[in-house]
Specification:
- The protein is of the alpha+beta class.
- Helix content is about 40%, strand content about 15%.
- The radius of gyration is 18 Å and the shape is elongated.
- The relative contact order is 0.16.
- The N terminus is likely disordered.
């Protein structure tokens, strides 16, 4: 059974910047002050779906800091991703309720089925996969979320059918 849940809006899917204008559209909104780094990272990820090496370099030049400083801050926060997301995001809950009801086994099954590890994207860009600490659906455990759809009381035998529903 699946149901829609209120979750944060999904980041815009990766768009390849056609020229410097796409990056500059974000950067010109910021002076490059010390406190601008995280908001710039957030806006870049919102626009492009992830923080690429190119984006790190552009931010560093704009703020007149090293790429290492930009990457150091971005990698500290789990909200930033460095791999292009897939068209569909798969999140496997490993919170306490899901864990005791087979969350780890489900996570391993997703990895086998998609051929990727957490934090990666399939080569066809169809799926990306993440393990999450809690999706807040403990009574429905174990839970797998695909995009905004919650798939409750998930079993490994149903997993392939669920994933097949997403183009």
């Amino acid at each position: 059974m699946s149901r829609r849940t209120a979750v944060m809006s999904k980041p815009a899917r990766s768009t390849t910047p056609s020229d410097n204008g796409d990056y500059n559209e974000v950067l010109r909104k910021f002076k490059g002050d010390e406190g601008d780094l995280i908001p710039i990272l957030q806006k870049m990820q919102e626009k492009f779906g992830y923080i690429s090496e190119e984006i790190v370099g552009r931010i560093a030049r704009h703020m007149k800091i090293s790429e290492n400083q930009v990457f150091g801050v971005a990698s500290f926060y789990s909200q930033f991703r460095f791999v292009e997301p897939g068209r569909h995001s798969v999140k496997v809950c490993l919170g306490t309720a899901c864990h005791v009801r087979g969350g780890r086994v489900l996570s391993e099954a997703v990895e086998r089925e998609l051929g990727i590890s957490p934090g990666q994207t399939t080569t066809d860009k169809r799926f990306d996969m993440q393990r999450v600490a809690c999706l807040g659906c403990c009574a429905l455990a174990p839970v797998v979320q695909v995009d905004d759809d919650i798939h409750s009381r998930m079993a490994v035998v149903r997993l392939k059918r669920v994933l097949a529903k997403y183009e």
